[in-house]
Amino acid sequence: MWPLGYILGSPYSPFNLEQQFPNFNWRDRFEDLLALESGKTMISAVSRQNEAATAARIRNESVHDDISRINQELQRNQDYVVLLQNLREVSSRRKDTAIVAMIDNEALPVQKQSAEMVIARGKALIATLSDLQDKPASSYKMRVPWITSLISSGAMLGWESMVYDSADGFLADVYKTDSSGDGHMFSEMDLATIFTKGYRLDFRSPVWSTYGGFYNNYYPQIEQLCPEGDADPDAEHTYNTIDNICPSVLSQLTTVQRRKSWNGSIETRVVLKNRFTNGKEEEKTIVNDASKVLEEVEKAHSSVKDRHSAIGLALWELSYRKQKDALAVAKEMEDEEVE
To answer: Which residue has the higher pLDDT, 44 or 113?
Structure first.
């Protein structure tokens, strides 16, 4: 299953080599090898430079957006902690030991752990910016987008890819367009496990973990917070909020055609077909411009992050309202007990 099987399973895969010798640009070298094998010339220095400039800009924007989200998460975490502390104070005065124990042993430790994880994520993002200074575009890409970029560059002729929003990060179905059946499905998490922890990929029956058809995975959280179901106005409000969030890309199909142009040169035409969470579809065609392909791919990734963040905010607001209601009820009960 060349070259996909080699990339995923060989000890000489660029993903393995970059773990052992991180100062060498194994990804670009491998792409040049595939380009020569497919009858193309190696990727030009100008194309590499343009794509690297685009990648650096996108990466900086993405990291700064992520850090902004992290700051917002930390503020929400602090607001929730203050609410819990107020509820604990009222419950303590009322001698409600069950609520006090729940807050001390469960709720506050969970918030502390959550804040520590968010802070660690922020530090890792900042470190990423410095680590990737003046690096080639391939270094900015996660493993799944890099594999699909081999298709869009024309280096993997006869292959297509469909990338899905997945519970395990982006999930790719990479396959040959002939009837050979060659291909495989893998997620970003799969590849991280293989190439950082040394596990082997099972080529027999990959687990399907896409959100396609299961995108409403937030339902159980709403049902837990709103056991009365549709009779609870907070549940209806949260469902409506999520339904009105800007749709994101659910899947992106990458296909490539090579054609001879009017002047005899060979054009690489990349067709990107996006399917959105609201069922709409769009198609974009890009000719001989790797930096533009990268930009469009990253737009899809960004739309997914924005939607996930918005859903997370809606769920947090629901949880905060419920906790605020609990505090109001506790205060009312305290006032009645005083009277």
So the answer is: 113
